Structures are given as structure tokens and as C-alpha cells.
Amino acid sequence: MFDPFRYDFFVLGIAATTLAGGLCGLMGVYIVLRRMSYIGHGMAHAVFGGAVVSYVIPFMGFFVGASIWGFLTALLITLTTRKRQIGADAAIGIITTSSFAIGVAVISRYKTFTRDFEAALFGNILGVSPGDLAAIAAVSAAAVVIVFLGFKLLLFATFDQEVARFYGVPTGWIDAMFSLVLAATIVVSLQVLGATLIAAAIVIPPIVARLLTNSFRRMVVLSTGVGAFCGLTGIYVSWWIDVSSGASVVLLSAALFVAALVYSGLRRQFGASRRRRTARPPGDVPAGSTPPAV
Fold first, then answer.
1. d(Cα 2, Cα 18) in Å, to the nearest integer?
2. In CATH, what class is 3-277?
3. pLDDT digits (tens, 9 = 90+) for 190-241
4. 151 to 6, 29, 184: CA distances (angstroms)
5. From residue 49, how far is each of 141, 258, 287 by CA, in Å?
6. Percent of the chain, pLDDT > 90?
7. Contacts of 92 (CB under 8 A, 6+ apart)
8. CB-based burial of residue 242 (10 Å sphere; 0-12 exposed, 13-18 middle, 19+ buried)?
9. Comparing C-alpha atoms, which of 107, 193, 70 is closest to residue 115?
10. Which among 22, 51, 215, 227 could bridge 66 via Cys, Cβ 3.0 to 4.6 Å?
11. What contacts 157, CB < 8 A, 6 or more positions away?
């Protein structure tokens, strides 16, 4: 049962995936509540384009180049969606696919890359290094601090930006900070989850949490916990069944979603039937009881 933990690469991988899963779950709450679930998929592809470009520019490292590229992409999406005639889904589709296309064009032009881009697309637990783990830990700590300190501002800006702006909430700065943290989250999760699977890791945990609670605070905690649990368990399962680590994490998340959906439906049905049993028409007197005096 504990055989995989004898290998250093597995310990690094499971620690990195647990942190990345929790981080994606935390950031996903705000993405889902803003009804921008597609941004996770789009941003992952956009960051892939930035990762390719960062290897062409010799003085720019992977994390720095991809993070800057992702931040500018997210910021551009946010600014574009403020235009009433352009929907969020259209802005995300245009900007992120263009960014991904830039990466593909660069790869086709320069054919001497040494990095395994298949790992960046689908994830690779064997490629997680101590530096990757340190980067994930740093971004996770920064995200927790930002969410803790700006909890009310983020909540206000998430549900109604126009009203928040009227009350003096700096929505522009909040959007910029959120875009930066989101871009960093996707960049540090690339190695473990892969660009094609990050979207599910960002979207599924908050939806599972939303099915289980109506409280925003509990949703944040539950989503982070579900993401971390799926990362931890998914990697462990992938070791034994010999499948991609990212795919294992996402499939486990999907299974939890199905379970939460069934549980939510049964709970709603049970609550409705219970209300019907307890509700009585006006003036109805239960059998065996004494009528009230007139």
C-alpha cells in the first residue's frame, strides 16, 4: 500500500498534485461564480503559447514568461468582456485560441526544442522537480493570503461589479490581481495536470462544493478540500492503474461530481416529500386529537 512512497519522484509528484488540486479548487470558486468556467480551458491553452514563446526568448525563464503571457491574456479577456456587445465566451474563445495558435506556429518554425511539450499538454508526474513543487507552494501561499485579506472585496466584485464599483470597490485592481493569480495557478499546474486537463481541475471542485452547500465560505473551503483530495487520491490511483496523472485526477473529480449530483437530487427530493408530509390544510385536525374550543 505504501510502496510508491519509497520513490522520491512519487513523493514530489503527490505533494505537487495535492497543492495544485487545492489551488485550482480555490481559484475555481470565483471563476464558476463569475460564470466564466470556459476561461480555465482557454487560459490553459493560452499559457501553453506563452510557454513556447518563453523558450524562444533566451533571457526569459519558463515560469516568468508563461506567467506574464497568461496574466496579459486574462487581463485582455477581462477588459474585452466589459464591452457590452462582446460576451465572455466569445472573448475567451478568440483571445485564447489565438494565443495557442502562436505557440503552435512557433513550434512549427523552431524544431529544436528539447522540452517535452506532450507533458505540458497532458501532465507528467515523472517530470515534477523540487523547483516545480516550490513554485506551486509559493503560488498556493500567495493565493491563500490574497483570498484571506481580500475576501469581502472579492466576494463583492464577483457577484455584482457595477454595484461594487459604485461603493468604491477598486474592481479594476481586483480583476488585475485575480488575473495574475489565475495565470500563475495555471502555469505551475501545467507539469502535473497538463494544459488540456487544467480546466476540469478548476471547474469541477467548485461545482461539487456548490451542490453540497449554499454558503460562500463553506463553498470556498469545500472546493479547496475537494481539489486537494482529488489531487492526492488521483495520483495514488494513477500509480496502480498506470494511467496519466492528470487524467486520473480529473476522472476522480468527475466521479465525485456524479456522486454529489445524485446526493443533491436525493436530498432535494427527500426534503420536498418531508415538507408535503408536514404541511396540512388550514383547519385540518390530526386524527385522535381534540378540536380547539370555539
1. 17
2. mainly alpha
3. 777 776 678 788 889 999 999 988 888 899 999 999 999 988 888 888 888 8
4. 40, 12, 19
5. 26, 33, 73
6. 11
7. 36, 38, 39, 42, 77
8. exposed
9. 107
10. 51
11. 164, 169, 171, 174, 175
The residues, ordered by sequence, that sit 6+ positions from 245 with a Cβ below 8 Å of its Cβ are 13, 17, 123, 124, 125, 192, 193, 234, 235, 238
Query: Using CA atoms, how far apart are residues 66 and 198, in angstroms rounded to an integer?
Result: 15
Q: In this structure, are residues 202 and 27 in contact, taking their beta carbons and an 8 Å threshold?
A: yes
Contact criterion met (CB below 8 Å) for 194 and 120: yes
Query: How far apart, in whole angstroms, are the C-alpha atoms of residue 85 and residue 24?
Result: 30
Q: DSSP 3-state assignment of 244? A: coil
* Distance spanning both ends of the chain, measured CA to CA: 73
Grid cell locating 252 = 476522480
Would you report the helix, strand and coil content of the chain in percent, each value rounded to 5? Answer: 80, 0, 20
- CA 29/CA 34 separation, integer angstroms: 9
